[in-house]
């Protein structure tokens, strides 16, 4: 559906992410992440980027979607075989009107949904374990956090799996503004589409690809400074957002 969350994440699927150093001025490194959940079937342009990537960004809901009519273990093995050593695994998050084949509650999403539906969380844990078994360094990304208590609960569960790193998506204005009230993590990644939607009180589908928003850029700058104060080692951001932050 044009403009839907699913449509937008498909458009984002080949956007590289920048990984930046600890300092709040965001000095770039040569490390970059390719956002793709299908590294083994990328077109030539995607394969060219994959060869340069230090890591890939895999979405849990895409793994679930690909597994509908396929062997889940085989899908994960194929992803692992085509991937660099490091995989950022963003645990599944989807809007209530999409992925109807999975459990849905119209009032919750992200980490809250995973905690509510333990079978979904167990499925994600199995995926993390399999990627680790296949020799990958898994950096788990916790999606859409709504409170410090929620983050503590899911972070403690996933930490038991001993991922290479454990980081957090920051997708709400309150979360970004009050990040120092939330538990620390190995990295932060502000999700600009959801931040724009939350700050402007619009549907995520109204966020236009390639546009920048001064308010979101300002918020991301403050978030980067706070992350440095919290001694969070890494700050990840979409390239379009990083370029605007650096320009400031």
Would you kindly provide a brief summary of this structure?
The protein contains eleven helices and eight strands. It has helices at residues 5-11, 44-52, 60-66, 72-81, 110-116, 118-133, 148-159, 173-177, 192-200, 214-229, 239-247, and strands at residues 16-20, 28-35, 55-59, 86-90, 137-142, 165-170, 187-190, 234-238.
What does this entry look like structurally?
- With 248 residues, this protein is an alpha/beta fold.
- The chain has eleven helices and eight strands.
- An eight-stranded mixed beta barrel has the order 1-2-3-4-5-6-7-8, surrounded by six helices.
- Helix 5 packs across helix 7.
- The longest helix has 16 residues.
- About 9% of the residues have low confidence.
Largest sheet geometry: 8 strands, mixed, barrel
Work out the helicity level.
40-55%
Give the termini separation. Answer: 36 Å
Number of strands: 8
Low-confidence stretches: 6-27
| Strand arrangement in the largest pleated sheet | 1-2-3-4-5-6-7-8
Work out the helix count. Answer: 11
Coarse morphology:
globular
Which structural class fits the helix and strand makeup?
Answer: alpha/beta
Question: How much of the residues is beta strand, in percent?
Answer: 15-25%
Cα gyration radius (Å)? 17 Å
Question: Mean pLDDT, nearest integer?
Answer: 82
Succession of helices and strands: HEEHEHHEHHEHEHEHHEH
């Amino acid at each position: 559906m044009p403009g839907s969350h699913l449509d937008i994440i498909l458009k984002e699927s080949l956007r590289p992410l920048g990984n930046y150093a600890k300092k709040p001025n965001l000095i770039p490194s040569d490390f970059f992440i390719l956002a793709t959940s299908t590294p083994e079937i990328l077109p030539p342009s995607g394969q060219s980027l994959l060869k340069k990537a230090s890591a890939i960004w895999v979405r849990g809901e895409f793994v679930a979607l690909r597994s509908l009519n396929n062997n889940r273990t085989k899908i994960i093995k194929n992803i692992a075989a085509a991937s660099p050593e490091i995989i950022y695994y963003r645990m599944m998050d989807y809007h209530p009107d999409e992925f109807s084949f999975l459990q849905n509650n119209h009032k919750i999403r992200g980490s809250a949904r995973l905690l509510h539906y333990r079978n979904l969380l167990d499925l994600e844990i199995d995926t993390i374990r399999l990627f680790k078994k296949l020799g990958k360094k898994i950096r788990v990304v916790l999606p859409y956090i709504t409170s410090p208590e929620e983050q503590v609960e899911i972070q403690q569960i996933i930490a038991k799996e001993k991922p290479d790193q454990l980081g957090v998506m920051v997708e709400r204005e309150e979360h970004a503004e009050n990040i120092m009230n939330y538990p620390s993590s190995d990295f932060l990644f502000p999700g600009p589409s959801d931040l724009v939607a939350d700050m402007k009180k619009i549907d995520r589908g109204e966020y236009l690809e390639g546009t920048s928003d001064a308010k979101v850029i300002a918020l991301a700058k403050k978030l980067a400074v706070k992350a440095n104060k919290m001694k969070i080692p890494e700050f990840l951001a979409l390239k379009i957002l990083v370029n605007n932050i650096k320009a400031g």
